[in-house]
Amino acid sequence: MTAPMPVRPPEPPEKPPPAVSGEASAKASGKAAGKGPEQRRPTRLLAPLRETGKLFALAVAVARAIFRRPFQVREFIEQFWFVASVTILPAALVSIPFGAVIALQVGSLTQQLGAQSFTGGASVLAVIQQASPIIVALLISGAAGSAICADLGSRKIREELDAMEVMGVSPIQRLVVPRVLATMLVAVLLNGLISVVGTLGGYFFNVIMQDGTPGAYLASFSALAQLPDLYISEFKALIFGFIAGIVAAYRGLNPRGGPKGVGDAVNQSVVITFMLLFFVNMVLTAIYLQIVPAKGS
């Protein structure tokens, strides 16, 4: 007879692992991912600061790339012609009512004060120093900046910019620098056009509608105006053109959400440019009035 097979005693049941709280599991997952408890996710309040820093970084990169070779001459000429073609006629049409409104308002005020002979100088200074650069910035950002943002944004979502980087071509030097330089040059030239058209419009409305004399208009202008007034106007236009080009390029290079994100980026670029425009205009005007004394003082 064969011996009976030995029977193995049953194993004791395993104890369930202790429950882990949500905080402990988060710490464990953070340690597994290589992140300590001190490395936390930044709050949403820091998002505007990050965006501002990236915008300034792009501005510095563009300023450095301007002096690097090769310079894209053909792209610059094409962008210059495009920006000029979409802004020259609107600038001339907008500058006439601006000059007329300023001349009528200043003329009415000087009549109340009994100083009608200073209407020409006051209105022309307001047009040259303030109205002309602001009109330039609004048109550059609204017409040209939106088109630049849409163009770069469409290239980004089609992954053309990534392909350029893979081939060793810098998108900033190849695409952004010619567009920013084009907006700056067109802004300076448009500022001169708007100053002339706005001054002529103010002269016409003051002489025809308010019974002003041409001699008093020109005499007050020569008595109050000086050459630095034109310098600060052109400098403002140059800075505003640079800001419009940089903001449009930044929003175009960083769209979110596909084609819909490109449309949102265009709207954001125009709004951000307007906000920066009025702030920078206030700063430059305050600095100019402190540095350059008024004529005759």
Topology:
Elements: H1 22-32, H2 47-65, H3 73-113, H4 119-157, H5 160-166, H6 171-209, H7 214-224, H8 227-253, H9 258-291
Helix pairs in contact: 2-6, 3-4, 3-6, 4-6, 4-7, 4-8, 4-9, 6-8, 8-9
Write structural notes for this entry.
By secondary structure, this protein is mainly α. Helix content is 77%, strand content 0%. It contains nine helices and no strands. Helix 3 runs parallel beside helix 6. The longest helix is centred in the first third of the chain and has 41 residues, at 73-113.
Number of helices, counting only DSSP H or I runs of 4 residues or more: 9
- Mean pLDDT equals 79
Number of strands: 0
| Helix percentage | over 70%
N-end to C-end Cα span: 133 Å
Structural class by secondary-structure content: mainly alpha
What's the gyration radius in Å?
A: 31 Å
Poorly predicted parts: 20-24, 26-39
Short description:
The chain is mainly α and 297 residues long. It has helices at residues 22-32, 47-65, 73-113, 119-157, 160-166, 171-209, 214-224, 227-253, 258-291. 77% of the residues lie in helices and 0% in strands.
Question: What features would you highlight for this structure?
Answer:
297 residues; mainly alpha; elongated; 77% helix; 0% strand; 9 helices
